[in-house]
Amino acid sequence: MAAAWCVGIGLAVLTTVTLVGWIAAPRTALGPGLPGVFRTAVNFWLVAHHAGFSLPGGRVGLLPLGLVVLPGVLLYRSGGWMIRTARAPRPVRGVRGADPTMTVVVQVALALAVPYAVLAALLALAATTPVVRPSAWQALLACLVVAAVAGGLGAGRALGAARGKRVRTGMGALLRLLPERPRSLVIGVLGALGVLVASGAVLAGVSLAMHLSQATALFDELAPGVVGGALLLLIEVVYLPNAVIWGMAYAVGPGFAVGTGTSVSPTGVFLDMVPSFPPLAALPEPGPAPALSLLAVATPFLAGAVGGILSVRAMPSSVHEAAPMWGFLTGAMTGAVAAVLAALSGGPLGGGRLTVMGPSPWRVGLMAALEVGIAAAIAAWVFNWRILRRSAGPSDRPEPPKERRRSGRKEPAVPTGKRAGRPQRRTPAAPKPAETPPSPPPAPRPPRRPPVMADPVEFEEAEPVLTPRRPRRPRVREPLDSPAPTPPEPPADRRKREEPAEPTDPEPAETKAEAEAAPDRQEPSRHRDEPERTETRGGAIYVLRDEPAED
C-alpha cells in the first residue's frame, strides 16, 4: 500500500509538470496526445530514480541528482508511516537479548522497496516507445536502492521517536543502531565527506558568480519564454548537485571532463565545444587553471584531518597504536563514497563527443582515498596522543602529603649555590595563640528502649486476696455400741493453765501412715462436757482441765 501511494503521488506531480510543458511547447515534442504526456512523465519519474534511457542517437546517463529528492521524501515518509502503523517489534528468535530494532528497520525497508521496484519495472516496460526506451533492469535496481535507503532512514527515525529518543534525522537514528566501532568510522566518513562537498559547492558557486553574465547571455539566446524559462530554471536547479560533485572532483585533483578529449582540473583546462546549457557557462577559460582555484587542492587534507579527529573522538575507548590505522580506514571509506558520487553525477549524453561527461569515478576515488587517508591517519595519531597525554598527566604528578595539603603552608626552600655555606637567619616565630581546651564530648544518650507494659500484679497498695480455706479433716466418730473411751488421767492437784499456742490453719486430711508418723500431733478439740476440752479465744487455743476435789 505504501509503495503504491509513493508511485501514485510521484507520477501525479511529474505528470502535472509535463502537462504544463506540453501545453506551452509544441505538442509533437512530447508525443501525440495525452498518452504521450503520460509516457514522458513516466520517463521523468524513472530519471528521478537515476534510471537512464536510450535514444536512437545514443544513451542518456547524465541525469539530474536533484530530482531524487521527490521520491526520496515520499519514501522517507512512507517508511515512518509503516513503523507507526505496525505492531511493536518482537525479539529475534534464537538470539537471547538481541535488539530487534535493526531487524525491524531492514524488514520495513525491504517491504517497501521490493513492491516499489517491481512497479517501477512494470512502468518502464509500459513507457517503452520506438524513440525512447527506458532500461527495465536499471529501473528495477535503481528504484530498489532508492526505496531501501530512504525507507530505512524514515523507519529508523520513526522507531527512535516511538521509543522516546530525541532524534532529528534518520541518519542519526541509524547511527545509534550501529555498533560503537563502525559508528565511529561512519561519523569520520561523514565529516570528511561534508568538507569535500562543501569545497565543491564553494567552487561551483564562486565560478558561477564570476561567469554570471555569460550564463545570462546564453539564457537569453535560448529565448524559452515564460513557461519554458520556468521549466529551464527548474532543470538547472535539479542539476546543481551534479555541479557540486564536479567541483569536489576538481578539488580532489582529477577534475572532470565535458566531452571526449577534454579536462578541467588544477593542472590545466582543456575544452572544446560544449552544449548550450546556461550552467556550463561557469567553466573556466581554456589554459592554466585559475590561481584562486588552486587553494582548493588543500581541501582533501583538511577533510582528512576532520575525519580522523571525529573518528577518534567517537571511539568508545583509546586505540593507542591503532589510531593511524583507523584514520586511514576512514580515508579509504571516504574515497569509496566519493567514487560512487562521481559515478552518479556523470554519464553519457547521447552519442559522439558527449559520451564522456563528468569525473572519472576510479580516479576520484583513488585520489580521495590517498589524500584523505594519509591526512586522517596523521590527525588521528596526533589527536589520540593528546588524549592519552591529557588523561595520563594528572596521575603521573606526585601527590603532596595530606598534612601539607590541608594546612596550605609551603616548606622552606633549601639554599643552593653561594648561600649554601652561610648560616641561615632565624626569624622569630610568631607567638602562637593560646589553645582553647577542647570542649568535652557530649554525654552519650542512653539507648532508647522499647516501652515495657506494667506488671498487672504489682500495685502500690496490695489488696487482700481471700483464698479458699482448706477442707477440715473429717472427725472420726466411734460407733454407739463401742465402749466409751476412758478419759485420760488428769494431772494432780489443780487445773493447770497452759500457754496459748499459736493459731494454725487446719491441715487437710492426712493418711493413716502420716498419722502414725506424727503421734505427738494435737488431737481435735473435744466437747465442752468432756472432762478435758479446748477453747479458742482471741485467736489462742486454751486447754481446760478439771482438777480433782481435795479430800
TrEMBL record:
The chain crosses the membrane at residues 7-25, 62-83, 104-127, 139-159, 185-210, 222-240, 247-271, 291-312, 324-344, 364-383. Residues 391-551 are annotated as: Disordered. The keyword Transmembrane applies. Residues 491-500, 509-536 have a biased composition (Basic and acidic residues). It comes from the Bacteria. Residues 430-445 have a biased composition (Pro residues). Pfam families: DUF6350. Keywords: Membrane, Transmembrane, Transmembrane helix. InterPro entries: DUF6350 (IPR045931). This is Integral membrane protein. It comes from Thermomonospora echinospora. The lineage of its organism: Bacteria, Bacillati, Actinomycetota, Actinomycetes, Streptosporangiales.
